[in-house]
Design goal:
Blueprint: E1 9-12, H1 16-27, H2 62-65, H3 69-81, H4 83-103, E2 109-120, H5 126-132, E3 144-158, H6 163-229, H7 235-270, H8 299-302, H9 304-325, E4 330-341, E5 353-364, H10 370-436, H11 442-476
Antiparallel strand pairs: 1-5, 2-3, 3-4, 4-5
Pfam family, one: OEP
GO molecular function: efflux transmembrane transporter activity
Family: Belongs to the outer membrane factor (OMF) (TC 1.B.17) family.
Length: 485
C-alpha cells in the first residue's frame, strides 16, 4: 500500500447504474468469517465423571424443587422486587434498543431539508455585476440573490463485505449476552433466597435446642441442689451448673441475633422493609431429590454465566470482522430531489423541480495506522473473551464437582451425627441416673450434657449443609430459570 504525506481518501465516481449492477457481485465477496464455537475439553469437566445419563437437576423448575410454600412465596417476591434483577432487566432494554438500531442499518436513510437564504452581493464581484443587471419585477432587487430550497435526501451504504451484517450480529450477541446476564442474576437470587431460608430454619432448630438445654440444665440444677442438701454434692457443683445455664442462655441470645440479621438480609434480597420472615420448620424440608448432574456439555446451554461468556465471545468475534472489513472500500449510493427557486412565488412548481443521483466508492489509503490498530485491539479483545469463556466453563465444572462432593460428604456425616446424638442422649441419661444414685459426680453429668448439646447443634448444621449443597448444585448446573421466560 503506497503511503502519502497527507491523510486522504481516493473517491471513484462512476456512472450510478454501473455500480448498481456491481452490488450483487461485490456482496458475494464477503471478507467476514462465520463464528464457530472453539474446541472445548468437556469430557473431564466433572471430577470422576463416568456417566452418560443426560438427566440433570437443572431441568427441574424451581417451584417443583422447593416445595415449601413459604419459600416459594419468598422467591416469587424476590423475582418481582429484587433491585439487582431489575437493573439487569434495564440492561436488556438498552441492548434491545441498540439491536433494533443495528438491524435498521441495512435500510437507507431519508432526510428532508428546507432552506431560504438572501445575500447582498458586492457590486465589484463577478456575481454582483451579473445580478446588478437584474431588473425582473417579480424577483429580488438588483444585487440581491435569494434562494429557496425544499429537498429530500436518500442515502444507502451497500454491505458489500459483510461489515454491516457483522455489526448487526455483534449487537444481537450483546443482546443475548445481557439476557443471559439477567438469567444469571435470577439463578443466583433463587439460590441465595433458598440458602438463606434454610439457614433460618436451621437457626430456629438450634434455638429450640438451646431452649430445651436451658430447661434441662435447670432441672439438673434442682437435682444437684437436693443432693447438696443431702450432703452428696458440694456448693461447687451448684455453681458449675448455674454457669452452664448461663452458657445456654448466651447461646440463645447469639442465635436470636443471627436470626434477626439473616431476616434483614432476606428482606434486602426481596427489596422489602426489614422484618420477620414467614417460614416453616427444618423437619418439613426432608424430601427425596434425585441427584443428577447430567453431562458436562449441558452446561453450555443451561448455565447462564457460561452462555453470557460465549455471547461476549461472539460479539467480540463479530467486531473483529467489522475491523477487518474496514480495510476494504465502501460503496455508497445517494439521491436528492426537491424544489429549488430564486423566487418565492415560483418555488413550488414544475419548473423548480430538481433531482440528482450519485454513487461513490471510498477506499482507505492512509489513516495513520488507525485501521490496523483498531483491528489488533479487536483481535486481542476477542482472545480475552475466549479465555474468559474457557475460564467460566472450567469454573462451572469445578462448582458442580464441589457441590457433588459436598452433598455426598454431608449426607454421610448426617447419618453418623444422628447416631452420635442418639448415643450421647443415652449417655446423658445414664449420667443423670448414676448421679442420683451416687455412682457418678456432677463433672460427668456436665461433660455428657455439653457433648450432647454440641452434637445436636452440629447435626442441625450438617442437615443445613446438605440442603445448601443441593441448592448450590442446582445453581451450578444452571437451574433456576426457564428458556420459556
Amino acid at each position: 500500500m503506497r503511503k502519502a504525506s497527507p491523510t486522504y481518501c481516493r473517491r471513484f465516481l462512476w456512472k450510478p447504474w454501473i455500480l448498481l449492477l456491481l452490488v450483487p457481485l461485490l456482496q458475494s465477496c464477503l471478507v467476514v468469517k462465520p463464528y464457530e464455537r472453539p474446541e472445548l475439553e468437556l469430557q473431564n469437566l466433572y471430577r470422576n465423571f463416568n456417566n452418560n445419563d443426560t438427566t440433570t437437576l437443572a431441568a427441574i423448575p424451581w417451584p417443583e424443587l422447593f416445595s415449601d410454600p413459604h419459600l416459594r412465596n419468598l422467591i416469587e417476591t424476590g423475582l418481582q422486587n429484587n433491585l439487582e434483577l431489575a437493573t439487569a432487566y434495564q440492561n436488556i432494554l438498552i441492548a434491545e434498543a441498540d439491536f433494533r438500531q443495528g438491524r435498521a442499518a441495512f435500510l437507507p436513510s431519508l432526510d428532508i431539508n428546507g432552506n431560504a437564504s438572501s445575500s447582498e452581493l458586492a457590486e465589484n464581484s463577478i456575481m454582483g455585476r451579473q445580478f446588478r443587471g437584474n431588473d425582473d419585477n417579480n424577483g429580488p432587487p438588483p444585487g440581491r440573490v435569494q434562494q429557496y430550497e425544499l429537498l429530500g435526501n436518500l442515502s444507502w451504504e451497500a454491505d458489500i463485505w459483510g461489515r454491516i451484517r457483522s455489526l448487526r450480529e455483534a449487537r444481537a450477541a450483546a443482546l443475548q449476552q445481557n439476557q443471559a446476564a439477567y438469567r444469571a442474576v435470577q439463578t443466583r437470587l433463587v439460590a441465595n433466597i433458598a440458602s438463606a431460608y434454610y439457614r433460618l430454619l436451621a437457626l430456629d432448630a438450634q434455638l429450640r435446642i438451646a431452649e430445651q438445654t436451658v430447661e434441662t440444665r435447670q432441672n439438673s440444677l434442682i437435682t444437684i441442689t437436693k443432693l447438696q442438701r443431702a450432703g452428696n454434692e458440694t456448693a461447687l457443683a451448684i455453681k458449675q451448673q448455674e454457669a452452664q445455664i448461663y452458657t445456654a442462655r448466651i447461646l440463645q441470645v447469639d442465635l436470636k441475633q443471627q436470626i434477626a440479621q439473616l431476616e434483614n438480609r432476606v428482606s434486602t434480597l426481596l427489596a422489602v422493609p426489614p422484618g420477620p420472615v414467614a417460614r416453616g420448620s427444618l423437619q418439613e424440608q426432608l424430601q427425596e431429590v434425585p441427584i443428577a448432574a447430567g453431562v458436562p456439555s449441558q452446561l453450555l446451554r443451561n448455565r447462564p454465566d457460561v452462555l453470557e461468556a460465549e455471547y461476549a465471545l461472539i460479539s467480540a468475534f463479530e467486531l473483529t470482522n467489522v475491523a477487518r472489513a474496514d480495510f476494504y472500500p465502501r460503496l455508497a449510493l445517494s439521491a436528492e430531489a426537491g424544489f429549488q427557486s430564486l423566487n418565492f412565488s415560483s418555488w413550488i412548481s414544475s419548473a423548480s423541480l430538481y433531482n440528482s443521483i450519485a454513487a461513490g466508492l471510498t477506499a482507505p489509503i492512509f489513516r495513520r495506522r488507525q485501521l490496523r490498530t483498531n483491528y489488533e485491539i479487536n483481535q486481542a479483545q476477542q482472545q480475552q473473551a475466549l479465555l474468559n469463556f474457557e475460564s467460566t466453563l472450567r469454573t462451572a465444572g469445578r462448582e458442580v464437582s464441589d457441590a457433588l462432593v459436598t452433598y455426598q460428604a454431608e449426607s454421610e456425616k448426617y447419618e453418623l451425627r444422628e447416631k452420635q446424638v442418639e448415643t450421647l442422649t443415652t449417655a446423658e441419661d445414664y449420667a443423670n441416673k448414676l448421679l442420683v444414685n451416687g455412682y457418678a459426680n456432677y463433672l460427668e453429668v456436665l461433660r455428657a450434657t455439653d457433648e450432647k448439646l454440641a452434637a445436636q447443634l452440629e447435626l442441625v448444621n450438617t442437615q443445613y449443609n446438605q440442603m445448601d449443597a443441593l441448592v448450590t448444585l442446582y445453581r451450578a448446573l444452571g437451574g433456576g430459570w426457564s428458556r420459556e421466560e
